[in-house]
Write a structure and sequence with these properties.
By secondary structure, this protein is mainly β. It has a single domain, classed as Porin (Beta Barrel). It is built from 1 helix and 10 strands. The chain has a 10-stranded antiparallel beta sheet, with no helix packed on it. Strand 2 and strand 3 form a beta hairpin.
Length: about 140
């Protein structure tokens, strides 16, 4: 079964890619950071535009173009986020929803639901923190049993 493209085929590669999240002093103050490859090339940048009632972040590619917009859903128990194509927050552009696997956690465990899965019974992907000191994580697909 061929894997399907969720965001854009230009971000698909046959092998795993190590990324480093880098923040500088100014970024810590405003909440922006970048992802670099092992050679120090910036691949992605995350911006937190302004302030407001809803938390929102925009993932930009290395050229500054919006790839995804992440918006926190308010008043949820599992800290849910909706992820949209590009710079949109329109329902028709929603790609997936992410939530914490449980309300109380020692390490990061997230469930990812593709599309408009309102029932959220079986997740499509999981993200698990692997090393607290290095703050690393692994994302993997969940296949039906």
């Amino acid at each position: 079964m061929a894997p399907s493209v969720i965001v854009n085929p230009r971000f698909c590669v046959p092998n795993s890619v190590d990324l480093a999240m880098v923040r500088d002093k100014i970024a810590k103050q405003y909440g922006n950071f970048v992802f670099k490859d092992v050679n120090g090339n910036m691949l992605f940048q995350v911006k937190k535009p302004g302030s407001g009632l809803h938390k929102k972040m925009i993932l930009l590619d290395g050229f500054g173009s919006p790839v995804l917009t992440m918006k926190e859903k308010t008043m949820t128990l599992h800290n849910r986020w909706q992820i949209f194509k590009g710079g949109s927050t329109e329902e028709r552009d929603m790609l997936y929803t992410v939530k914490r696997s449980s309300m109380l956690q020692r390490t990061t465990k997230l469930d990812v639901f593709l599309g408009h899965s309102n029932e959220e019974k079986t997740c499509d992907f999981k993200v698990k923190g692997t090393n607290w000191l290095e703050r690393s994580c692994v994302a993997y697909a969940v296949y039906p049993k």
